[in-house]
């Protein structure tokens, strides 16, 4: 690989096409992996939130039942 310079400023990287396409493919693969990991994390967070909401609802129902029993 070679780096091209114009007026001492890097303007690009020259490399054989097979190396560039390989690097691009690896980068795309990395991006896909990152997206999948982010999606998994979001799903886990949503599941945790749903579980917490269910627990809160169950607790509220239990409290209501206890209040009804005490009132009777």
From TrEMBL:
It comes from the Eukaryota. Residues 27-72 are annotated as: Disordered. Residues 31-72 have a biased composition (Acidic residues). This is Uncharacterized protein.
């Amino acid at each position: 690989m070679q780096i091209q310079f114009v007026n001492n400023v890097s303007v690009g990287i020259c490399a054989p096409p097979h190396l560039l396409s390989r690097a691009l493919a690896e980068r795309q693969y990395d991006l896909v992996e990152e997206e999948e990991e982010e999606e998994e994390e979001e799903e886990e967070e949503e599941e945790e939130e749903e579980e917490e909401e269910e627990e809160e609802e169950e607790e509220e129902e239990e409290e209501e039942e206890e209040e009804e029993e005490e009132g009777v």
